[in-house]
Amino acid sequence: LLLQFIDEQKGLSHNAFLKFAFQLPVPRKALKSEEWGWRYYPLSVEAAYAKKSEFSLKWQFDITYSSTCPCSAALAKQVVESEFINDFAHREVLKSSEVQQWLSEKALMATPHAQRSVAHIQLQMDTDSLLPSYIEIIDRVESALQTAVQTAVKREDEQEFARLNAANFMFCEDACRRIKNSLNNETRIKDFKIEVVHQESLHPHNAVSLAVKGVADGFIV
Fold first, then answer.
1. Going along the chain, which residue ranges are E strands?
2. CB 3.0-4.6 Å disulfide test: which of 30, 109, 140, 192 passes with 157?
């Protein structure tokens, strides 16, 4: 198509550029139940042909996920531990029923702050390779993060989502590192740039982390 553009210029131009931007619809099953729904991923594709540099192809997409602050989680845990010690410091033996009752009343005395987060990802694809599908790369990134936002859910799905968040505490730097590691060994991607934005619930500003693959003449931060 790009070559057709150039050909139709009849010598007036030797370069061509094309960009598509759209929402990629992907059916997603719930974490535990049989519920499912559609996720829509913002995606753009840029193709360019220049007489000297020949053909280039860039993909850009966003991944939305949940991030729970590791520091906040540790502080919340400390509150619960301190309260438990305070309530039972004088006791050497506890009944399981007493512990169960205490947990039902005070296990959530403090909770860590979490927020919706977004990873903006740019990829320079290797046009000499058989390209992956969009969803293959999206799945790779979401698998690295483990806490992608959900569609339709039931109680068991929300509970599993809470468990995954507790198992994957992340600063923005941690999320950025996970994504970078997931893309680094993909030979069909020549270069990448990652911008991770955690929309802080504790602060009025966002926490941001950036990373690039680090190739010569590639993306820069």
1. 16-29, 36-50, 54-68, 114-125, 189-198, 207-212
2. 30
Residue 8, pLDDT score = 82
Q: Quick check: 154 and 33 in contact, CB under 8 A?
A: yes
- The DSSP bridge pattern shows strands 36-50 and 16-29 to be antiparallel
* HSE, side-chain direction, 13 A CA sphere, residue 81: 6
Sheet holding 36-50, edge to edge: 16-29, 36-50, 54-68, 114-125, 189-198, 207-212
Predicted local distance difference test score (pLDDT) of residue 53? 66
Distance in angstroms (rounded) separating the CA atoms of residues 9 and 51: 14
Please provide residue 141's backbone torsions phi and psi, each rounded to the nearest 5 degrees: -70, -45
Give the largest Cα separation in the chain, rounded.
91
Q: Rounded to an integer, what distance in angstroms lies between the CA atom of residue 16 and that of residue 100?
A: 68
pLDDT (tens digit, 9 = 90+) per residue, 2-37?
878 777 877 777 788 999 999 999 999 999 999 999
Q: Which residues of the chain have pLDDT under 70?
A: 52-53
Radius of gyration of the chain from Cα atoms?
24
